[in-house]
Amino acid sequence: QQQVKQSPQSLIVQKGGISIINCAYENTAFDYFPWYQQFPGKGPALLIAIRPDVSEKKEGRFTISFNKSAKQFSLHIMDSQPGDSATYFCAARENTGKLIFGQGTTLQVKP
Amino acid sequence: GAGVSQSPSNKVTEKGKDVELRCDPISGHTALYWYRQRLGQGLEFLIYFQGNSAPDKSGLPSDRFSAERTGESVSTLTIQRTQQEDSAVYLCASGNRVNQPQHFGDGTRLSIL
Q: How many domains does chain B have?
């Protein structure tokens, strides 16, 4: 039972382009939606996060768009750079603090 | 560095052996989580500790898996009678409180031969 569905599985973007990764969730009790970035051999690192009472959050080149009624949220990476090449995970948090992760998106930004 | 520390970074063992994985959380963090990441997959929740409360073990896949935490410090995840399907990266995360962001270690890559 997959509570958080993430797409696409992989993504190739040219340098300077916009990378968009989408997630959908089922449990309306989730209270926090983080995005993590993971490089090979490293643990996930928190990138940006949003609470469900906010529709958009921007930090530098990274933006989360949140649609509560559709139970969907997305990560936009503006002006994508080769250094952004990594695996990105969306997640949703239960009130216990437990994170439910999406399956991940491998992003490759071509120079 | 004051991040989450996990050891060993890599572990190769034979099927049927027991393994013990260690996590040192960020000092002062009361919440500690264990996750499993299979190759090319997302992270699966295994267990979490919050202060002196009873741990949430709902994600442990079988009774071969167990975990302990000493107070608000180090935690160990033990897998008994390892199977090949246990091969994965085991990640530990800690947080200041349940509703604060989780910070991950770099994991232990476990390979069962």
A: 1
Question: Residue B101: which of A31, A41, A49 has the nearest Cβ?
Answer: A49
C-alpha to C-alpha distance for B3 and B103, rounded to whole angstroms: 8
Residue A1 lies in a domain: yes
Domain count, chain A: 1
Owning domain of residue A7: 1-35
The pair of structure tokens assigned to B40 is 């090319």
Domain that residue B94 falls in: 5-112
Judge whether A68 lies within some domain: no
Strand order from edge to edge, sheet including A19-25:
A4-7, A19-25, A72-77, A62-67, A56-59
Quote the minimal CA–CA distance from B94 to chain A in Å. 11
Q: How does DSSP classify residue B72? A: T
- How close A96 comes to chain B (CA, Å)? 6
CATH number of the domain to which B49 belongs:
2.60.40.10
**Structural domain contains residue A40:** no
Query: Cα(A39)–Cα(A51) distance, rounded to whole angstroms?
Result: 25
Which of A58-62, A105-109, B100-104 shows the lowest mean pLDDT across its residues?
A: B100-104
User: At residue A27, does pLDDT exceed 90?
Assistant: no
Q: Which of B4, B41, B56 sits opposite A98 (nearest CB)?
A: B56
What average pLDDT does the segment A78-99 reach? 93
Q: State the count of interchain CB pairs (< 8 A) between A and B.
A: 60
- Residue B75 contacts A where some CB pair is shorter than 8 Å: no
